[in-house]
Write a structure and sequence with these properties.
Nuclear Transport Factor 2, Chain: A, 46% strand, alpha+beta
């Protein structure tokens, strides 16, 4: 699967709150790290991480601005928002560096300013 197709599948799974489909985009020994967070290692732990966030996290949105690069290393420029108690959105821009291997995400590392 091409990088952009794989990422589109991942983004769609996130929007659907489908932890199994989202984590299926990651290699069995993948590493996932959100900006300012600790590394989540392995597909099983990534599945648990996504499922917990979808179940217990606040209302959120993830909007992709652009995907840069081709091959086994791409960057994803995005905006991530969380809905607060006052029904207002708090958004921040970020970028993920994504390493791919064998048609799956091997490493996802986020940065934000």
């Amino acid at each position: 699967m091409a990088a952009r197709d794989l990422l589109e599948t991942l983004f769609e799974a996130w929007q659907a709150h489908d932890a199994l489909q989202a984590s299926a985009c990651f290699a069995h020994d993948a590493v996932y790290c959100e900006a300012g967070g600790t590394e989540v290692m392995g597909r099983a732990a990534i599945t648990d991480h996504f499922a917990r966030f979808f179940r217990e996290g606040p209302p959120w949105r993830f909007e992709v601005d652009e995907v840069f690069g081709e091959g086994d290393r791409v960057a994803v420029a995005y905006r991530f928002g969380v809905k607060g108690a006052a029904e207002t959105w708090s958004d921040r821009a970020g970028c993920a560096i994504v390493g791919l291997e064998g048609g799956l995400v091997r490493r996802w590392r986020e940065y934000h300013g």
